[in-house]
């Protein structure tokens, strides 16, 4: 048995080329790759994947506990997988199974939680017990420099700042006299092919030597690393995990090389840092010791699948931190087999031209020359990304960093979304989603995509429903945008597919096997958990919009149950409004709303019955809420517009308006509703107003509240009707100084809500003099023949008082003049006739 | 290494021979007596040491390899333990881009706010690469095309008619003939048509002399370093045709207070030597104080990020900070006890900040009262500025 360990840098195109060459040369009969052991099952699908993709392992009991191993086109591991697929050589993953590390993490979190309870301090354990998606060991591994894993967790307080294991390449680079480890590794390994490029020379001979050199270097480093003196608990834990991982890999390698079906030539592809541990150059663990290390942990049961990934997520700045800063550049290095520099600058120029920025071919030539000159100044064999960026900034962007940012986003990182084939094992829910996406022609894309749906069309309606259902499943693929006044038939959405949605889909799979079923189940669950009636009603609206009849029935049932149980009429009224909307607009979306109609009916009956008693003895806050609820219910009744129910409603409102000892705000509000509906006439309104404001029996504060309720937020009633204004004016004039102070604040509040034209109109009327109620009695007011009568104010107003009060002789004197002024021939004649 | 190699001038009808001045003869007198020696005089020893140890490839006509030029500008220690002082303190990346540009066909445009060491860097690059930083065209509104191309000695022109001898070559023409670097200072201050006279020079690398039916072709190694200012008013925008012929390097203001303090201290020490001041080198604390005031007024916020201050109309560049300290040192040396005190600094400080007499005094007074007064250990400076202010108002 011969074992060759190929130490690589995750996501390094040079490493990828070297692995490709080395595997071709070695022709192994088994390839082992650093990756979770559970992933083997998913390897059958390698052929149907388009990188970037990520191997996803998730806990069966809680799919949100998931980890990802991303692979790009230029990842060495991916080349190893492809080698296996192309030659038929079996490939296996040998790293610690995710199920095991997850079990360990849960164990730790439980312990940490217990500790936290004991200590009653320090939120969260060392790993941050609160963060569920914390990277498990190894998950971040395919990104870091040379496999020194767990960059996130390492580096606790009170320990030496620079441990070798955190930054092995940095140490190596410094030892070689370089200050930049990235550059050092790039020059040495990643750009290697470019350095000795040539069609005749495949660079094959160098590959194995290169790996041998890497292995030697890493052995030196790990010897150097040692245990360290003072290390934090996090560090101890991290090292223990590393040991377990390496022990597992060693056991797997031994197992592969022994037994009946032992492989003769084994190639192992793993992060460079692990090479010495796997070859036995350091540590020298025995098989028994390894087994002991791994004993006593029960793995969590997991499932494995592939999900599409993006370059943006491979980049270091993204949340998952897979750790390559420039996947687009690496991809370019991988795909352009020659003249990488020139091709890159050409692509940059193309991008700038697309953005209407000047980028001539002459500039391209000069930029390439500058990049090469810079590489020479910096003593590099070929220009790297740093040189190219500097050259592009000086040569193509005129020193302006803004266009360079575009280059960075679109080329250096790149906008590539991977894809997985049909046959990839997937949760049924994801399969259903894929089917729907195909049928509705909605393609997931990494870029923002704006669509506009016409709800009268079947396809568009289904699209809208799908997006809303997905939102219920915590997959906010589409974000509804405010439509610009095109009515209820149009919906605008912005679509953007994030790779983690694939995980959310897996997580939502426990709700059901189709999108519709799962969304229904989510609504059902939330209905059960909903705290109060309005929350359930909101769910009902969601169910209707998402077109889920079953869910609607469930929510309606829950609503009915809760409505029966609740004595709170305000809640019932708040619940009625969305029902009315559904009732009215549901048919736009062709939803069956019979159930809603029945429910609304029962609610209306109960509201009408419950309203008057509910308006008794309310304090000011409760009255505010009640008035708002009455308003919304009134809107709902008007929307449903069933004459029978409206009549019943008005009876209830009248009762509420008449309640003595209720809050006068509610009384006023109810009076207004009746008045607006034409249920009581003007005279009646005036009577009620007069009564409510009468100085004798009503406290000024209550009067002001009544007025507040009555006027609501519009002053039109005062502006239009001089009689009302007169009443209010008279009441105001009758107040004592103290009482005026009391009502000033509420009145100010009321008037502040009016529009400026209304206020101006009221002020003009008040300024021009008002008809005063005669004697302040309760009967119909009679305008006296004051100076105001012939004034410009109130056409028609004075007439309502009846002709008896007028002095006909004096009127006759004025009339001809008025008539000629107004050019009314008839009036003139009448006047002369008299 | 890519360089601009020009074909020999065989095809041209006649090549006007312009005497390229031997470099050693350029500046007269010894460095000791000069008010301000050129870079190649002041740092002759360093340049010689670099040339002696430099084994790397040099582009045609370059006196040093690009690597050595970068080392000369940024400082370092050579194999033979010669210490090279840093001339420009700032990003290595920028200097590398600048040097690499000069080795290509494109000219170098140094862009930046006033006082960001554009001319300083340009002078040192020319000194290191060509050993001569004196081929300068100073751009002003009055700069004529003659300064970029060639002029005439009118007495000879009238007496002898157009001839090579009657022609007065511009610095650019001399640089072309000698394969060295020409510097164009304040490029955007020149009129647009004068700027555009450079286009032929930069793209064709030749300067036609119509009167003599001949031309001057650039010798390999020729290139232009232009500086321009992106903040001042009254500049003439560069045409895009000209801009395309430059690689642009934007020189930033010093990134941190520490860097700026280092720049000011270093430069003040050099100037102090040059001015032969008997004063002690300035205390770091005083330099730091001036730099902090400059930075705070420039950025509009105090260094702790807590207080917003108004920004005066003045540029407040690092160069001006150097001026304030040097001025203070001179005061201290001749009228004080030789030690830089708050009073010595105050006068220069106020002069640097208050440029617009209508608005800046208010900004400065607000800053004095709001920031300087309450700062620990700044009492003396506050008092000095305040005295100065009262004095000025009393007058």
Structure summary:
The complex is a heterodimer of chains A (834) and B (395). With 834 residues, chain A is an alpha/beta fold.
Please provide a written account of the structure.
Chain A: Residues 129-144 have a biased composition (Low complexity). Chain A: Pfam families: DUF5682. Chain A: Residues 145-158, 787-800 have a biased composition (Gly residues). With 834 residues, chain A is an alpha/beta fold. In chain A, the strands form four sheets. Chain A has a four-stranded parallel beta sheet with strand order 1-7-2-6, with helices on both faces. A three-stranded antiparallel beta sheet of chain A has the order 5-4-8. In chain A, a hairpin with a 6-residue loop joins strand 4 and strand 5 (66-71). Chain A is elongated. Chain B has 15 helices and eleven strands. The radius of gyration of chain B is 24 Å and the shape is globular. In chain B, strand 8 and strand 9 (214-217) form a beta hairpin. In chain B, 44% of the residues lie in helices and 11% in strands. The model of chain B is unreliable at 1-15 and 22-29 (pLDDT under 50). Chain B is α/β, with parallel strands linked by helices and 395 residues long. Chain B folds into two domains: 34-251, 3-Layer(aba) Sandwich (Rossmann fold), CATH 3.40.50.300; 257-394. In chain B, the strands form four sheets. Chain B has a five-stranded parallel beta sheet with strand order 4-7-10-3-11. In chain B, strands 1-2 form a two-stranded antiparallel ribbon. The interface between A and B is medium-sized, with 23 and 24 residues.
CATH architecture label name of the largest domain in chain B: 3-Layer(aba) Sandwich
* Poorly predicted segments of chain A: 121-161, 194-204, 317-322, 773-803, 828-834
Give the DSSP E fraction of chain B (strand runs of 2 or more residues): 5-15%
Helix content of chain B: 40-55%
What is the count of helical runs of chain A? 35
Class from helix and strand fractions of chain A: alpha/beta
| Average of pLDDT of chain B | 83
